[in-house]
Amino acid sequence: MEQQGNQYEQERRSKMRALRDMGVDPFGGRETGIQNLAEARAIYKPEMGHDGGPIVKVAGRIIFVRDIGKLQFQRLRDEHGELQIAFDKKRLSESDWNIVKHLDLGDQIIVEGPLGSTKTGEVTIWAKTLRMGSKALLPPPAKWQGLQDVELRYRQRYVDLWANPQVMTTLKLRSQIVAEIRRYMSERGYLEVETPMMQALAGGATARPFVTHHNALDIDLFLRIAPELYLKRLLVGGFSKVFELNRNFRNEGISPRHNPEFTMLEAYEAYGSWETMADLVEGMICDLAEKFFGGLKIEHKDAEGKVTKTINLQRPWRRINMVDLVQERTGWKFDKRPVLEAAPELARKLEHVNWASQSPAEQLVTVYEKLIEPTLIDPCFVTHVPSVVIPLARKWKEDDYFADVYELAINGQEISPGYSELNDPDVQAENFKHQVGDEEEMQKVDEDFLNALRYGMPPAGGMGLGIDRLVMMLTGAESIRDVILFPLMKPRD
């Protein structure tokens, strides 16, 4: 295959040299007045007939060629759509007709000519002039069925985007969703800020960080696992509503739901609570669904277009205590005893879990994550998670064994956590101490954050929203790699 690929490349290079010998730059130059293909197509009206429409100027990549001697039909594709081009020897200059004879699938060209149609009614531009945009030296995927090798699609996204139009649609939609989130937050008085991505201490979440080294200062730094502690510092400083929409980095596994580099929205509101944040997220996601998908029912479809799953976002979304939800689904009423003692039959369903290594609180979370979360297709705010696993949240006033929080599950996965934030510096210091486990590890605690809390942080609500998972849920993408332009890939040997 490599030898064949080289053969095709050599043939294309020969055509490139021929174009240069003709005085044509195979890689074009500046062009003005180009309309996208969808705009040009929309201008056409049936009364324009065969070639009676206005002159339009378009550019695109050649994805199909049908040569019938002195007449050649090509189909161009750009990010907005496709359109047929007709090259008639009688309508073109001799030099432009010679260019046509040196074109290949994958080449990018610029065409001007009147809009019209063929005998079969196909909207067509009858080219009067032709210029090169870029000569493709490598051939496109075979038969224009799209790039089928999944790994190759992710590695060569620059081919995937134009070979598979649905990929372009999904990834453009992602950018539009992010822009709409920014608008939504701004309209509600939240100020977008930027906090450090390289941090002296990795904090704000529990995860293994990426480590780098700053040569000038001769210190190790960590790519952030979360912006939380810096955003809370801004509440101490006097900001009342802040958000950041940017990258986090976690040196952990890769899966259909995990990429080491991922995008998160985090927001904090002074004098808010987890309920404030739940309302914010619920309203935002419904706004996105209505704006981009026309309603609150999200359909996931297979390759043939058959609906495989429907997610109902109709408000209000369910809110239920984790203990109550676990009891509802499993029959186990959590009473703070170990699961092996209180519900041995349930424990046996998860035979691969090392229950002895977990506290009863952690066991409750494990049962929820393993048996229940994957079944939560419609939105569900699972509230009041054991506080020991969430050291940055306030404890629930009714039972301090639990934290005043939610975990929002949609489409069988967590998509957003939200807290009533802990602002007592002494309690926070104790939580950190318990989290790190021993005195030697206390150096990993962010003492400057604790110092900031000692100056006084107002009570607040905070939330995170995983943008990649949100886009997966809204678009029906099966893998997180399908909604990231350039997912991390293991280098080829």
Question: What labels would you give this structure?
Answer:
21 strands; 493 residues; single chain; 5-stranded mixed β-barrel; 8-stranded mixed β-sheet; 26% strand; elongated; alpha+beta; 15 helices; 33% helix
Structural notes for this entry:
The protein is α+β, with helices and mostly antiparallel strands and about 500 residues long. The protein is built from 15 helices and 21 strands. The chain has helices at about 1-20, 35-45, 95-100, 150-155, 155-165, 165-185, 230-235, 275-295, 320-330, 340, 345-350, 360-370, 425-435, 445-455, 465-475, and strands at about 55-65, 70-80, 80-90, 110-115, 125, 130-135, 190, 200, 210-215, 220-225, 240-250, 260-270, 295-300, 305-310, 320, 380-385, 395, 400-405, 405-410, 415-420, 460-465. Strands 7-11-12-21-20-19-16-15 form an 8-stranded mixed sheet, with helices on both faces. A 5-stranded mixed β-barrel has the order 1-2-3-5-4. β9 and β10 form a beta hairpin. About 35% of the residues are buried.
List the helices and strands and how they pair.
Blueprint: H1 2-21, H2 37-43, E1 55-67, E2 71-78, E3 81-88, H3 94-100, E4 108-117, E5 123-126, E6 129-134, H4 150-155, H5 157-163, H6 165-187, E7 191-192, E8 198-199, E9 210-214, E10 219-223, H7 228-237, E11 241-249, E12 261-270, H8 274-293, E13 297-301, E14 307-312, E15 318-321, H9 322-330, H10 339-342, H11 344-349, H12 360-372, E16 380-383, E17 395-396, E18 399-403, E19 405-410, E20 413-420, H13 425-436, H14 447-454, E21 460-466, H15 467-475
Parallel strand pairs: 3-5, 7-11, 15-16
Antiparallel strand pairs: 1-2, 1-4, 2-3, 4-5, 4-6, 8-10, 9-10, 11-12, 12-21, 13-14, 16-19, 17-18, 19-20, 20-21
